[in-house]
Amino acid sequence: MSDADRRAAVSRETSETTIDVTLSIDGDGDAVVDTGIGFFDHMLEAFAKHGLFDLTVQCDGDLHIDDHHTVEDVAIVLGEAFTEALGDKRGIVRYADRKVPLDEAVASVVVDVSGRPFFEFSGEFSQPSVGEFTSHMAEHFAMSLAMNAGLTLHAGVEGDNAHHEVEALFKALARSLDDATRVDPRRSDTPSTKGKL
């Protein structure tokens, strides 16, 4: 499988958002992001940097209402991009888990690139918002990503500072997805006894 095979470009337009995403799983961590929400842009840039994904996100959303549709829909499109870029998932590691600290906060993510979407979350965010980003939308982002990328995803946070908790979560998502989507040089088939994920 060549690096060029693990790329995707996905667009989505609704009455709430217009989104264009490009993703290269085997990238350098380069990101160009504009969602209109400064802290969310920062989180997506951190996600790309720590996952070594090349990522572009352009989103024009209904921010005059709130941040919900923008965050949710970007996660939907990003999940679809992962699904497209991974194709039949031949040769991938499939499972991964990471714990990432940021000062007092710790986030944990366990992922199975299974094709069977499931999401479980534990913990709470210590403040209701970080800038213009509603803290609980970090959990919703992870859920929407899991549902649309076909991930079994268990995640959690603990800490005292929502900025740190959210950032640790995005970094843990990035590191675990980087690990799980890597190609195992020992494997030429799809990592499932069913023969398909």
TrEMBL record:
> What top-level class of enzyme does the UniProt entry assign?
lyase
Output a single Gene Ontology CC term carried by this record: cytoplasm
Q: Could you list this entry's UniProt keywords, alphabetically sorted.
A: Amino-acid biosynthesis, Cytoplasm, Histidine biosynthesis, Lyase
Keyword Magnesium (UniProt): no
- Which EC number(s) does UniProt give? 4.2.1.19
Per the record's keyword annotation, is DNA damage included, yes or no?
A: no
Q: Which InterPro entries match?
A: IGPD_sf, ImidazoleglycerolP_deHydtase, ImidazoleglycerP_deHydtase_CS, Ribosomal_Su5_D2-typ_SF
Could you tell me which SUPFAM superfamilies the record lists for this protein?
Answer: Ribosomal protein S5 domain 2-like
State the Gene Ontology BP annotations: L-histidine biosynthetic process
Q: Where in the cell is it found?
A: Cytoplasm
Q: Which reaction does it catalyse?
A: D-erythro-1-(imidazol-4-yl)glycerol 3-phosphate = 3-(imidazol-4-yl)-2-oxopropyl phosphate + H2O
Biological or metabolic pathway of the protein: Amino-acid biosynthesis; L-histidine biosynthesis; L-histidine from 5-phospho-alpha-D-ribose 1-diphosphate: step 6/9
Recall the GO molecular function terms of this protein's record: imidazoleglycerol-phosphate dehydratase activity
* Record-stated family: Belongs to the imidazoleglycerol-phosphate dehydratase family.
The record's annotation in HAMAP family points to: HisB
NCBIfam families per UniProt: PRK00951.2-1, PRK00951.2-4, PRK00951.2-6
Q: Could you tell me what this protein is called?
A: Imidazoleglycerol-phosphate dehydratase
Q: Which organism is it from?
A: Haloferax chudinovii
- Gene behind the chain: hisB
